[in-house]
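Researcher: Here's my situation. A collaborator sent me these components and asked whether they could plausibly form a single complex. I don't have experimental data yet, so a predicted model of the whole assembly would be a useful starting point for our discussion.
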Amino acid sequence: MNGMRKLGWTALLAALLLAAPAARADNLPGSRPPDPYRSRTEGIQIQCPGATDPKAVCVSIACGDGFVKMADGSDQYIFGFQDVAGIDPTVMWSYGRLGAEFPAPTLYAKEGQHLYLTLTNLGMIMRPDLFDPHTVHFHGFPNAASIFDGEPMASFGVTQNNSVTYFYDLQEPGTFMYHCHQEASEHMQMGMLGQLYILPAQDDLPDGTLLGTFTHHTGYKYVYDDGDGSTKYDVEVPLQMSSFDPHFHAADLGIQPPPFATMVDVYPMLNGRGYPNTCDPGGIMNNRNAYRSDIPNKVAQKIPALISCTQGQKVLLRISSLSTTEFNTLTAPGLPMLVVGTGAHLLRGPDKPDGTAGKNLYYLTQTITLGGGESTDVIVDTTNVPRGTYFLYTSNLNELSNDHEDYGGMMTEFVVN
Amino acid sequence: MNRDRKRKRTTEAAALAVLLLGIAVGSHATILGLTGTSPNPTFAFIAKQGYISTPDGNTIYCWGYANAATGAFQLPGPTLIVNEGDTVTITLQNQISIPGPPAAPGPAVSMIFPGQQNVSASGGTAGVLTQEAPSDGTTTVTYTFVAAHPGTYTYFSGTRMELEVEMGLYGALIVRPAGFDPNVAANRRAYDDPSSQYDHEYLYLLSDLDPNLHPLVEQNKLNQYDNTTFFANNWLVTGRCFPDTMADPNVGYLPSQPYNTAPLTHPGEKVLLRFIGAGHDMHPLHHHGNNALMIAKDGRLLESVPGVSGPDLAVSDFTQTVAPGETIDAIWVWYGYHLGWDEYGHTLGGPGPFEPNEIYAQSTLASSIGVSDTAITVPAGTGHAFLPPPRTFRAIIWGSGYANPDLDPNREVVTATRSLTNPDTFTITRAQEGTAAEAWSVGSIIADTDHGLPLPVTMPSIQNLEFGQYASGSPFLGQSGPLPPLQGGFNPYNGYYFMFHSHNEKEIVNNNVFPGGMLTMMGVLPYGAPIP
């Protein structure tokens, strides 16, 4: 009996060893020869109800490892998410391996929709010894159920080569975030961070609807269901603060225990980039081919932080922080910053008992201070702002660097045309 | 005479009596501490030294305020719970003696009370901020103040704070509003204003410590104690690091860390979270599950007209920024509102029970409708509780003679949208989910509810998942499901657990060990599950 089992394992191991070189031969979907291990797809089930749920919006993302490039040119090994919409489970691994992106793809949905979010765990190419599960934590989701909260201590993590579909009935608009909550101190430092925006139902009111004394017109966009048009904006800009500790990332790549106790971040970033890469309107190509010669490089940082508008427009800055180490303050001299929301909520006092709206608590400021897991909505009205280029940067001035390289870090440009 | 409700050690019979009393009054969790005797509570403190243990296996030399009645070193100092208007007297002696070698007397210590005015101090020696007690073990300093305002406050040493607060000389002070009564729901309040009413209260006294600095003090190497190199590696909630935060209070293996932070509640109940920053750093304390409403800061309600307007400046957020020395009161409620599926796993018409938090908005029909009508009206002023247009929502209509829709065999599911112009008029799409259109008379009930909606997705096989210790194995509140061996087990009532933790995630470790630190798990238990 024991001998039989041993023989079975040996045969399986032999099959894996034989198949492994073939599996690495290419990185193209569909052209990979069958691999008895990696083509195991029965655990991947992308659930999207289609016409049976007219409110459904479906998202398919995968998670694993990858590489990104810092503004000083250094490569950082990361864990992260990537969009795998439309990718068939049978080719998902070959499509997505070492394809993690930073930040994660930004997810958009509308208040009232049903979000079916499928997460597939593709495993770690550079760390085959790691068998970490992963999760999606919809950070700030109101009245969450533990089962879809993505906090694995109270629910579960998804193991490798498997998927789960999270379900969210989107009741509240706002600037949310999402991140992996599995071994959060490690996986978040490693880059499993993204932005998640829920657009308000007020956007879809019929043309001419009166909101108090304000008249809504088709195409108007608001941050929240404000009932008075006060959060209308023209241009939306995602700005997520985060930061990396390269020693931590190197330890993970080098098969060392994660050095939590010495974690100090020296790459402060906006949307996963340090200045001047923040102002690069395109994507940033990584250098993963240097680590795995069979996998070509990929654009793994896809979200610029350059802000551009026409004078007179109202610019919505959706600012969030998923730093794992510290608070940061953002400032933008010359730009009036009106705070209209915080914690994915309209910045308004509680409703009165008769249902009438509470007190508006909007305020004008020059600084926004956020720690990890905090978000705020800022509207910059450029009506009286002279045309030109302004800087939005952290006033924690030591964070204006890309590791040892000065004049970088958490800074971007705000161009008023 | 002081009464330490936390550390009370009497006979088992007395403990059982307290437990039964707790259940008899409706099990409303309260913060443990010293209450004294109103209106002139008197507390005797002795500054002592001792050791705390952290879950990374470390034992850390600390200083703390001990209750003289028991004489036991503890971290944090005893939580003082007094009433608005009380004249509070605290006596302080100092027995700190640095072990060395060479041994040396400890420094003078003192107490300051931010947020309290006209604190008088007598005895001891004059320090920069207040009177100080030298470490002779006998000199007594007496602090007296009138607790004029209800709220959450802190106290800490006013002497060499950069050293002594790091070493542990801090604690919490809670002032109950006048008329406070924990057994009367309307009078169980944080402030005088009725909107500060709550069902359960929990203390989050947040601190951080550098385990490399403490041995320097212990070994009498104060000349090497350099505060500029402070680098925290342990993060505490009310004196403990996770997972010790979730252990019972007064457990024997944590002899000097009596206070736990293991919050529990039921759906719809109001949880008062009292946050205090007692360390060096700001902490973004993120509560999963729902936003909380910050109603007060530093012991004052956030109101535009003090004493009149109520907390009209309160802010909803999913993370509270707790700065050193700051206090925040926030109310957190989990309703299970609009999950899009029945959180109890019930089917429409099934045996139930139909739970109170399943109704999100409810009214009655103001006029009767026939089987083909597509509009209804509800009594004036009741429609605004339903979702505003252009949102559509699922609703159930049932007869007024039935306590809930499961009991009415003719119940009808509809899809409803409120009118743009009149919130008390809805257009409805009839006969949804296999129900039949019925004629409904005036007074029939209409409710926005997810009752009976199935889970919209299929959960993977448990072999494809890895479960945490608070997992029940079921998506449904109060139900369990199969779990792999050695997974789950910390959730006997099959509640929904939510992590309340520092979101600067490096702070949820114990030195180099994940998870730990500034982390607790809030349990939302099904109705009927006991809350100690």
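Model: Some features of this prediction you could bring to your collaborator: Residues 79 and 117 of chain B are 19 Å apart (CA to CA). The longest strand of chain B covers residues 42-53.
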